[in-house]
Design brief:
The complex is a heterodimer of chains A (113) and B (118).
Chain A lengths: L3 E4 L2 E5 L4 E7 L4 E9 L6 E6 L5 E4 L2 E6 L4 E6 L8 E9 L6 E3 L3 E6 L1
Parallel strand pairs in A: 2-11
Antiparallel strand pairs in A: 1-3, 3-8, 4-5, 4-9, 6-7, 7-8, 9-10, 9-11
Chain B lengths: L3 E4 L2 E4 L5 E7 L4 E9 L5 E8 L5 E2 L8 E7 L2 E6 L8 E9 L9 E2 L3 E5 L1
The chains are: A mainly beta (113), B mainly beta (118).
Chain lengths: 113, 118
């Protein structure tokens, strides 16, 4: 119940295309859903985040779509660029206790020129 | 944006020695800091949660005597790997979350520390 399932494991997209990464969760105690971008040898950087009372959030080329009834959320990267090549992690934060983050397994995105 | 630093970025040590890693929130006060471990091409694994001025809470399976965590102030937490062995070699990352009322939802991550134990 604590898991966050993320797919696909890896993704290759042509420059200018749309990258889509999906995540699903089961625990309704999660109430905050951030996405992190990580480059090799670096720490994760917050990309965008959403709460379950909103179905979509857009920041620049990055959009989160959230389906509360299905317990699913996804990241869309529009006009993907080679500089977007990185590993992306979805996460879900508990609304109790220390409000720990539960991470997905990560998606390695490669945007080909 | 909120900035978290870690020092050192890389450390190589001999087996049996202890290594201390510092995590600092540079432009905000962090009531809660988290320590993660990440293996190559894997996700982040939470090791422990620390609140300023209190003992750290360790995740199941993490040896508290091996991984000593101190959260002495609202801007500094340290992780000490005691009697390090080659299997402790990993990428250690800290994160910090702010004071209630100021961006409390978001964890901001440090750049990570690569530990290699010979």
């Amino acid at each position: 119940q604590q898991q966050v399932k993320q797919s696909p494991q890896s993704l290759i997209v042509q420059k200018g295309g749309i990258s889509i990464i999906n995540c699903a969760y089961e625990n309704t105690a999660f109430d905050y859903f951030p996405w992190y971008q990580q480059f090799p040898g670096k720490g994760p950087a917050l990309l965008i985040a959403i709460r379950p009372d909103v179905s979509e959030k857009k920041e620049g080329r990055f959009t989160i779509s959230f389906n509360k009834s299905a317990k699913q959320f996804s990241l869309h990267i529009m006009d993907s660029q080679p500089g977007d090549s990185a590993t992306y992690f979805c996460a879900a934060q508990m609304n109790t206790g220390f409000q720990k983050l539960v991470f997905g397994t990560g998606t390695r995105l490669l945007v080909s020129p | 944006g909120a900035v978290v630093s870690q020092h050192p970025s890389r450390v190589i040590c001999k087996s049996g020695t202890s290594v201390k890693i510092e995590c600092r929130s540079l432009d905000f006060q962090a009531t809660t800091m988290f320590w993660y471990r990440q293996f190559p091409k894997k996700s982040l694994m939470l090791m422990a949660t620390s609140n300023e001025g209190s003992k750290a809470t360790y995740e199941q399976g993490v040896e508290k005597d091996k991984f000593l965590i101190n959260h002495a102030s609202l801007t500094l937490s340290t992780l000490t790997v005691t009697s390090a062995h080659p299997e402790d070699s990993s990428f250690y990352i800290c994160s910090a979350r702010g004071v209630p009322g100021v961006s409390t939802d978001t964890q901001y991550f440090g750049p990570g520390t690569r530990l290699t134990v010979l």
